[in-house]
Amino acid sequence: MALRTLLFLITNLAVVLTISLILNLLTAIGLLPPDLPLLPLLVGSFVWGVLGAWIALQFSAESAKRMMGIQLVGQGGGAAERWLHDTVAGLAQKAGLPMPEVGIYGSPEWNAFATGPSPKRALVAVSTGILKGMPPEELEAVLAHEMSHVSNGDMVTMTLLQGVINAFVMFLSRAVLFLLPRGDREDGRGMAPPPTMLLIWPLEILLGILGSLITAWFSRHREFRADAGAARLTTPGAMVGALQSLGQVENLQDPRDEPTLATLKINEPPGFLRLFASHPPLEARIRALQQAAGQTKAW
After folding, report:
1. 81 a catalytic residue
2. What is the value of pTM for the model shown?
3. By 3-state DSSP, what share of the chain in percent is helix, strand and coil, each rounded to 5?
4. What pLDDT does 3 receive?
5. Nearest to 164 by CA among 60, 20, 13
6. Domain spanning 62-136 has what CATH number?
7. pLDDT grade, residue 231 (50/70/90)?
8. Active-site pick, 140, 146, 186, 258
9. Which helix (DSSP H) or strand (DSSP E) does residue 71 occupy?
């Protein structure tokens, strides 16, 4: 996890340096005025964007506990709580991961999620609906899916990716102001006319929407990887069965859901809105598992 974070931060630094070189080149050949403070804006945007996302990630598990009303479970408690704790412990050992915190939150929806800044500080939680309603073999596959998110470092990568996109949104929306024609104040200092300030908010919205296409694509990609990881920790049939069961159950919406949580939720909007979906269609996920299982048998 530390190596993943280091490599991602180095990549972010490389992006900043690359853009800086491009800006310097455009200035040198006369396409940009030499007095535009774009480089400080670029550095500041990346600091705020990435650092803000990183800080949010550090408190993600605690925020989830408070927001969702999660009750942590241990080896004590009722039979369902003990089963949940022992199943996660077995999956963590099998995956070579530290034991995460395990919790339950009250909700009729069938859902599970993982969050936290590192495997040592991870949280895996399930709703009371899925704990009571899903067969144990399939629920174990769901828990393996969430443990795969932890093993793959999806929470870190997703958060930092969102931070980079936020940085670009901040930078580009404000850089437009520097490129627009400037008026003159009475003291002779140039400034953007007041109406151009109103461009920041529409530009941030537009760029944010475009950026969400990238985060949604990565989110869908990570679900396939987590499904494959769950199939390895349990069996492909158990994960396929879990997805089929999810497709047969009405996915009641919990108003406390947050997009920063790595969830198992079914998310399949119609038409072009699928480009913004955080999860692939269940049919595609099932098909990918079945194809992988078939290739393994053939091999």
Report:
1. no
2. 0.79
3. 65, 5, 25
4. 47
5. 13
6. 3.30.2010.10
7. very high
8. 146
9. strand 71-72
